[in-house]
Write a structure and sequence with these properties.
The structure holds 3 protein chains of 3 kinds. Chain A has a single domain, classed as Four Helix Bundle (Hemerythrin (Met), subunit A) (Up-down Bundle). Chain A is elongated and about 60 Å long. In chain A, helix 2 runs antiparallel to helix 6 (about 130-160), helix 4 packs antiparallel against helix 7 (about 170-195) and helix 5 packs antiparallel against helix 6 (about 130-160). The longest helix of chain A is centred in the middle third of the chain and has 32 residues, at about 90-120. Chain A has helices spanning about 5, 20-45, 55-60, 65-85, 90-120, 130-160, 170-195. Chain A is mostly helical. Chain A is built from 7 helices and no strands. Chain B is of the alpha+beta class. Chain B has helices at about 10-30, 50-85, 100-130, 245-255, 265-275, 275-280, 315-320, 340-350; strands at about 140-145, 150-155, 160-165, 165-170, 180-185, 190, 200-205, 210-215, 220-225, 235-245, 305, 310. Chain B has a 5-stranded mixed β-sheet. In chain C, helix 4 (about 115-130) runs antiparallel to helix 5 and helix 10 (about 335-350) packs antiparallel against helix 11. Classes of the chains: A mainly alpha, B alpha+beta, C mainly alpha. Chains in contact: A-C, B-C. At the B-C interface, helix 1, helix 2, helix 3 and strand 9 of B face helix 3, helix 7, helix 8, helix 9 and helix 10 of C.
Amino acid sequence: MSSAAFSGNTAEQQWVLPSRGRVGMFSLIAAESAIFTIFVVAYIFYLGKSISGPTPTDVLELPILGTICLLSSSLTIHLAVRALRNAKVGAFGLWWFVTLALGTIFLVGTGREWHHLIYDKGLTVSTNLFGTTYYSLVGLHAFHVTVGLIGIALAMIFTIFGKVQPEHAERAEIFSLYWHFVDVVWVIVFTVVYVIGR
Amino acid sequence: MKRSQQAHVPIHKLAGIAVLLAGVLLVATLCFGAPADPSQIPNIFRPQSTPANSILHLSALVLAITALIFVVVFSLLVYAVAKFRKRDEDDGREPAQVYGSNQVELAWTVIPTLIVLVLFLATARVIHSIQDAPKPLGAIEVIAIGHQFWWEFRYPALGVVAANELHVPVSNPSNPTPTFLTLLSVDTDHSFWVPRLAGKTDLIPNRVNHTWIDPQETGLYLGQCAQYCGTQHAKMLLRVYVDSPEKFEQWAQEQRKPAIINDAVEAGRQVFETTACVNCHAVSGTVADGRFGPDLTHLMSRDTIASGAAPNTRENLRAWIQNPDTIKPGSLMPAMQLNDRDLDALTDYLMTLR
Amino acid sequence: MSSETIALSTVGQDARPIGERLHEWVVTVDHKKLGILYIVYGIVFLVIGGIEALIMRIQLVVPQNHFVSPQVFNRLFTMHGTTMIFFVVMPLLFGFGTYLIPLMIGARDMAFPRLNAFSFWMTAFGGVLLYFSFIGGYGLFGAGNAPDMGWFAYAPLTARAFSPGHSTDFWTLALLISGIGSIGTAVNFIATILSMRCPGMTLGKMPLLAWLNLIMGGMVLLAISPLTAAQIMLSIDRYLGGHFFDTQAGGSAVLWMHFFWIFGHPEVYILVVPAFAFASEIIPVFSRKPIFGYPVMVAATICIGFVSFSVWAHHMFTVGMSAYGNTFFTVTSMIIAVPTGIKIFNWLGTMWGGKIQFKAPMLFCVGFLFQFLIAGLTGIMLATSPFDWQLGNSYFVVAHFHYVIVGAILFTIFAAFYYWFPKMSGRMYNETFAKWHFWLFFLGFHLTFDFMHIPGILGMPRRIYTYEPGRGWEIWNLIVTIGVFFQTAGVLAFVANLVWSLWKGKPAGNDPWDAWTLEWSTSSPPADYDFAATPAVRSRRPLWDLKHPEDPDWKYE
């Protein structure tokens, strides 16, 4: 069988399809968004329905520093990726490190906030509906931040050993999509938990 | 290219045989499978109450429409299978390659949409008429509380607490006395389903649901819990006794009275009140006021025990107390580990709680 | 013959030691082997799930039977449902998809082969974990800790207070793990279909199987996640003292239902859409015509995908939602009937004017059309919520959904088996065996599931281990049980056919059906690399164009 009958008159060099890494990452983000949506819905549904215990207004304080850090880290990771695309591996390493630091500050902030809530305000996951939904939602987000930071840390180690090159810019960008997603989720969680819900 | 083998199996013949077989089976079972008492069949198509009746009428419309659709599409399918079979004498050429037809596809989009519209409008009316029915002045109010695996019925206005067997007065359409039930649960989800009287409504903990029935003929209507609630979901049966207004009044009066004190069964009453029975059961007028299990003040006014699991006879009562698992394995009443003498005395005592 | 059609290996000719061959299967990332692994896995659990059904039907054959205890029965119906959905139908569908998609779009493998393997093994482990629950607790006879809360695990029955053992946890963990596998597979399907089509195969030119699996993949991403979320919440309740579904602390049992059914309803469309895909590939080939109305088939399925996310509370009509709530979900549930009905008409339109050959794949597809029609109509009955207030949670619903899952989905899976078995194994199956399979199974199916509607109408609820005599249910339960034996015979004929044909079947050649999609241009079985040279296509039926150069498809659509 000749393959000529297959090819027809399609000019093969014009056949461009979306990158599978991008499609895969967006698919994963879609699935994760659905998970977060359910936790957000549960949080909103149970606002005001706790039959006892502290309410959001009683105990929550705006996590300003952490939020600024996390949202800035989106900018810094974008700068890192752009640097790598422009073959500036050094600048990439710098911005990548800043991203790691900012993300870590956010996590530490969450940890301290939780410590305060548990030991000073007596709010745990089993205290009441607010406790259950708050720790679950913020915790799920913090878990995703942690996973992201582990990935960033690994890439940081590879960078230090000189393994990261400009041809990896596409992969770095796809990874950064995940990080941007984590930030977008934080915007939503922040709004729902600390602004609307309080 | 190899010619594929013809299908020599006579498809129509076999299909016909299958249909015939099914038909014969159907007729045979209709003739020989009919049970003794048709009124005991909780058949949704033999309603005796307005909600069930409204549903029957709506379902008639739905069945008519779906039957029509079935006949049309099935005929097309049979026709296609018969007419467009590859014949033995086929010339081996491919048939006309048709890719679609805008007109036909439009038609079979528009027509189903219209059918859906009609169905929806009819349905919306019935939903509203059943769910938003106003409660008339003469309505009987019952609070039905679901337990694992029995029903508690309270009539607040009448001061009655009963279990498992629901008594309601018959409702005369000119002067309606329907029964409006508030549905609650103390543990897991249950569902109140008496098919001839109404569709089912669930009893969900931490939620208040409502349903109503207005049975128009006296008699006994059977149902059971219709939402899986644990091990003995299957035997959480329902018996609804629709009484004449006089009989209902009489029943309510009897139920309101405290327990009969009969000195002849004093020994059994002692066993009852000094064993764990009082932790779960109530007998009004005595020290027993447990709420975990059914109220036993008028136990002997019921036809069945264990929420319909067994007829209310001395033997069954005794067996139940000795070990509930022999009748309803997995029910939440423990075996009381009584010796024979205590067991007999206790049974004698319970038999006096009319 | 050119180089892309050389057959490299057939079953039984691989002379390496068995250890090496098994090792290859365990570490493979080849989509074809993973597809076969999924399919074999699905068949094994089909037999197990079928045995569970058989035991239940024997228990229900007469009232007040004592064949199994209530505890065992409750575990059986939970395990049967969970097994059939998550460890039979989903693996079978994923298996066929994994095997076929790259071959049908002219790719050499899936987009992420290692993710493919990971997803399979996660799913496989989930099933093993679920069945491990039978051991321990009260031991095998007492069916151990196997889940017994029903496959939808309604709260608060799943709370520690009402389920003190680990039955709930086995259910949660097994499904969490296999859910990760499902999401991985969905990501893979979507990335493969969007990013790896061969030149010329625009989205409008790819086979319907690819389209429908793309849509299914999107649905999996959005539907499995709510289940995952709900199961995490349930575990927080059970182990960290949370109150998501703790009604004593103000939690809502209905919230669990919403979350579960936001997963559960799209899930059943996830199951049926790939079944549609099989029918859409097989019916045209055996009718010798292209699929009627390809663009509308795609549009209708996309519609179904979207609308399926808006109907979930039709599983909750009896929960006490307001009249507005019930009305809304009635509307959406009826609306979804329109695109679904369109597809049935399009399949009929494909057969119309054709030259139909009733080989096993087509027989099963005709059975599918007949049964899916009926299933859809009983679905409309259930969509009218007042009617559902009677029919819901009764054997009518059980009959309806078995009509869809067995009568429609399993029938197309059998069709797919017979259709692609020659491609996967290089051998033809035995047509006579296959026809016995069909007629035995068809008879058994109808004996069981036609008559199962009747007890529902007569007031028999589901999930009961026994029932009262004198309610008119006895004869129908008897007939339903008899049907199971015919279905068993049919499935045995099927398995025997597969095994026999693997060893004794005639060589199939590349294209035994004279079909038109790219997989039939490869050898049977295909070479490890699928295609020696990446094909390029100009129409939806590249092999038709090849075989009919004077009348190619690309001149018409």
